[in-house]
Design a protein that fits this description.
- The structure is a single chain.
- By secondary structure, the chain is mainly α.
- It has helices at 3-12, 26-37, 40-43, 45-52, 56-84, 88-95, 100-130, 152-156, 159-168, 183-200, 204-214, 217-229, 235-243, 253-266, 273-278, 287-313, 322-328, 334-366, 376-391, 399-409, 413-443, 449-475, 501-512, 517-538, 544-551; strands spanning 480-483, 495-498.
- The chain has 25 helices and 2 strands.
- Strands 1-2 form a two-stranded antiparallel ribbon.
- Helix 5 packs across helix 22, helix 12 runs parallel beside helix 16 and helix 12 (217-229) packs antiparallel against helix 18.
Length: 552
């Protein structure tokens, strides 16, 4: 806040800000935050990390990261958004004009992540549409043109992989070969953006209604899969692997790094979406309890989703959800299981998209950057249309390679940088004592020693260590990517290739551009201050000449 507001609050105590829409009820708000935090990573990446890092052993560093990194940051974002009642740009700009770039960075990251995240929803729609076929189209290899046998590419790999790489993506052998737009993916992408727009058209009014379905339906499906999976042969072996720790794994520093980043990204921190959602809360609200509920439900969901996955796959979980489709085809009533599975994935992804778009739209509305003559519904439609147009990149034959680049470089280092500056800004610029006063005013009690220790020291230090470790790990190797190349001598194994130099430049830009606004805005504000200071020194009485002329 500016100096005048800060002085008034210190004398008279915090004041309530009322001019803003509010959630219909508390359940709606909590479901929206849970829907944003709980996403595809809970049923996709978490089981994969558990599998490669010795099952139960991964849960130990994950739990430590949750307690000392995830929860403190989650509480801080919910509290600061609720107190200042603005989106990310407005919040940080209010704390200090020099921090305005921090909100812009969150906005840019949310926009870029939304581009490729909705492409994943398009893929899910494609699989959903094909789940009504009997038999499922990824069960058997298709016949060749002469109908004398099966397509050799499918025979060498598997029906599941062939349907994914050839029928769905029609993937090119490398990133330099773009290939044409795949019309079926373009249609699915357009459908995904239309569904997002319909649910998002009136902001929290329509999001709040849609979230009752999108945030709760996945738990119903997960429960159905859990009951079904526990009756399968071999389910016990998978569960034993999941919950039996391999202590040797903990000696690997990469386990700790991946655990720290997983809990961080799983909670959707630093995107600005949680700040935006909490800004529509009443200020007299227990944000500490909200943070505990959202954080615990998120971690519970990761473990809850891992149980049926490990039971079904028999500890052969993999980062690609196509492996799950392979398990589905072996179940009785495969079409029903496939439909349920992809509806669940779409619900999870749609809830997360609400947060990504809210992280873009709310700051623009707060700063009055949308012309008053453009209705909000029209602006939202234009934003979805422009996002769809840019995301056509991912519908090319090389689109999957580009999506992996966006996922790796936009959704990693920029978020760590933003979160680090967020916590430093609240604790050491806004002031931890002032922040404690705000929380006491909102919740009725002062934050305890746990919150104090994590905000002041532990969480910033962990973020700094994770960031440095991430940079060191990435700098030690030249980035590579896996290609699907039927001409590769060891096919169907992945043909691992190095990124071309021009692609490496794009990778660096995607890591740097989202956060370059942080120093640029600070520099711009400083130069503005310097200019005023110099002008004041050279002309201490700017009205002096006018007074002289007036006297004459």
């Amino acid at each position: 806040m500016d100096g005048e507001t800060g002085s008034a609050e210190q004398v008279h105590g915090p004041k309530e800000i009322t001019e803003r829409p509010k959630w219909d009820n508390k359940v709606q708000y909590l479901l929206t935050c849970i829907g944003f935090a709980v996403g595809l990573g809970n049923v996709w990446r978490f089981p994969y990390l558990c599998q490669i890092y010795g099952g139960g052993a991964f849960l130990i560093p994950y739990g430590i990261a949750f307690v000392f990194e995830g929860l403190p940051l989650l509480h801080m974002e919910l509290a600061i958004g609720q107190r200042l009642r603005m989106g990310s740009v407005g919040v940080w700009n209010s704390i200090s004009p020099y921090l305005g770039g921090l909100g812009v960075a969150s906005l840019v990251v949310s926009f870029l992540v939304g581009l490729f995240y909705n492409m994943i929803l398009a893929w899910i729609l494609w699989y959903f549409f094909h789940s009504f076929q009997s038999p499922l189209p990824w069960r058997d290899c298709p016949l060749n043109l002469n109908r004398t046998g099966y397509v050799s590419e499918c025979e060498k790999s598997s029906p599941v992989n062939y349907f994914w790489y050839r029928e769905t993506l029609n993937i090119t052998p490398n990133i330099e070969t773009s290939g044409p737009l795949q019309w079926w993916l373009v249609l699915c992408l357009a459908s995904a953006w239309c569904l997002v727009y319909i649910c998002f058209i009136r902001g929290i009014e329509t999001i709040g209604k849609a979230i009752y379905v999108t945030a709760t339906f996945p738990y119903l499906v997960l429960t159905i899969f859990l009951v079904r999976s526990l009756t399968l042969a071999g389910a016990t072996d998978g569960l034993i692997y999941l919950f039996t720790p391999n202590w040797e794994t903990l000696k690997n520093p990469k386990v700790w790094l991946d655990a720290a980043t997983q809990i961080f990204f799983s909670l959707s921190l630093a995107f600005g979406g949680l700040i935006a959602f909490s800004s529509y809360n009443v200020q007299k609200n227990n944000c500490e309890r909200d943070a505990l509920i959202v954080g615990c439900v998120n971690s519970f969901t990761s473990i809850y989703a891992s149980i049926p996955i490990f039971a079904i796959l028999g500890f052969k979980a993999n980062e690609n959800y196509n492996v799950f489709t392979e398990a589905v085809i072996k179940m009785p009533g495969a079409q029903v299981w496939a439909v349920l599975f992809f509806v669940m994935l779409f619900s999870l992804g749609l809830s997360s998209m609400f947060g990504n778009l809210e992280g873009v739209l709310t700051p623009l509305l707060d700063l009055h950057k949308i012309p008053s003559w453009i209705p909000k519904e029209i602006f939202t439609g234009l934003m979805c249309l422009s996002s769809f147009t840019v995301a056509l990149l991912f519908t090319l034959g090389s689109g999957n390679y580009w999506l992996e680049i966006f996922n790796s470089y936009v959704g990693s280092m920029p978020l760590l940088i933003i979160a680090f500056f967020e916590i430093i800004s609240v604790v050491y610029i806004y002031g931890i004592n002032r922040f404690n006063d705000d929380i006491e005013w909102m919740t009725g009690r002062r934050p305890n020693i746990y919150w104090q220790a994590t905000w002041r020291f532990i969480s910033p230090l962990m973020l700094l260590v994770v960031f440095v470790a991430y940079v060191v790990v990435e700098a030690e190797k030249r980035p590579t990517y896996n290609t699907w190349n039927p001409e590769y001598v060891h096919f169907p194994l992945a043909d691992v290739q190095h990124y071309p130099e021009w692609v490496l430049v794009i990778c660096v830009l995607l890591s740097v551009l989202p956060v370059v606004s942080i120093p640029l805005v600070a520099l711009y504000r400083f130069l503005g201050f310097l200019k005023k200071y110099i002008m004041k020194r050279h002309n201490p009485n700017p009205y002096g000449n006018e007074l002289c002329h007036g006297e004459l």
